[in-house]
Amino acid sequence: MSWTRRKPMETMTPAHEGRRLARTLSWPHLLALGVGAIVGTGILTLIGVGADRAGPAVLLSFAIAGAICACAALAYAELSTMMPAAGSAYSYSYAVLGEGVAWIVGWSLILEYSLVVSTVAVGWSGYAAPLLTAIGFPEALTQGPELGGLINLPAIFIIAVVAGLLMLGTHESARINSLLVLVKIATLTLFVAVALPAFDAQHLEPFMPFGFAKHMGPDGVERGVMAAAAIIFFAFYGFDAISTAAEEAKNPDRDLAIGIVGSLIVCTLIYVAVAAAAIGAMPFTRFADSPEPLALILREMGQGGVARIVAIAAVIALPTVLLGFLYGQSRIFLVMARDGFLPRSLARISRRGTPARITAVTALLVAIIAGVLPIDEIAALANAGTLIAFAAVGLCLIVLRRRAPDMKRPFRAPAAWFVGIGAMAGCAYLFVSLPMQTIIACGLWNAVGLIVYIAYGRARATAVLEAGG
């Protein structure tokens, strides 16, 4: 039965030279790819959103979201070194859980990556638009129809720039990404250095004003530590993009684990430090509603110059998030095209060793979303798609430990059963902590996905497997 059939692990990486990606990335590139994808608009904006829902206990929300992601990261590290293929959670699910689950995971990853890239591109456009309109650029061309404009050209432009960079060469884009990541880390370090001396422990009282579990507040907003954690989770994922680089890692047995686990550790330390500095410097109620909480805190402290530096650096470094997720999405699309779920002609590799065709198609898709479609209401769907993928990876870890305990594992996740169950249970709890409209929309998205699988994907995948991949 096609729903349960599994793809042999040995066929994951194509043997034909013209279909294989070039191995050009070492562990510093992968570490920078992960940090670049993780640290983005989340830390710049979600501290305010999280504080509004959890109060000072947003620190606990960050810790919970980080712990769940840590379980998922360890599972990713083990599976990616066992199966160094570009498809990430989709490929692992295909080999371990079967084609039907793999399709759902792949469909969910399409949701995650497309919405993240589009949302970040629109966020970048929001910073760039005032500068453009000040020099006479038509305002109607800086925002989509849902905001009264015609098309968001800056968002489309930045997607095109990042896609062009990826098509130019993976190693070249990785070097530029590493430089921008250093700018980003230096900026957040500057914020902590300025804000932390103003730390006042009284700003942490009461620590948990809205309780722990998710509940509906009198103003119609869902509050509690777990409600904040479900939203803050957006600020942590991105390390999964590293697993999509498995086919391009020079030494996947070593480099993938360093990149995945290392990037999450680095980002968790950054997040906790920034959150503690923000909460300690000012009562959370004063920046909870702000779209730019870090800059607001700095201005309130009389550090307007530093606030401008943070804002400018954010604009410069924000494309690293686009690069990480657009990179990841193009690689997942590449593997789905190899498997027959997308036209196989898209799986061709250019002379520079990059999947130029699928990168261009991916960029076109997200550019349409960012340029003309309303995304504010559906951006939270990215969380739902990611949680499904992370839970599947946790399950793959446990199933493989039981099914093939003696199989070579270049990286072994410690306490595998705890890690796998922690990833699944944590993701399930965060999933039900999402707003109900998000859960319903996710269900509808996957219902559409099943129709597409039955009507289009199943027969083509069968033909590919019968032909030997």
From TrEMBL:
GO molecular function, one term: amino acid transmembrane transporter activity
Compartments in which it is found: Membrane
Residue intervals passing through the bilayer: 30-51, 57-77, 89-110, 147-167, 179-199, 225-246, 258-285, 305-328, 358-375, 381-400, 412-432, 438-456
Signal peptide range: none
Domain of life from the UniProt record: Bacteria
Membrane topology: Multi-pass membrane protein
Primary location: membrane
Pfam families to which the protein is assigned, alphabetical: AA_permease_2 (PF13520)
Protein name: APA family basic amino acid/polyamine antiporter
Originating organism: Sphingobium fontiphilum
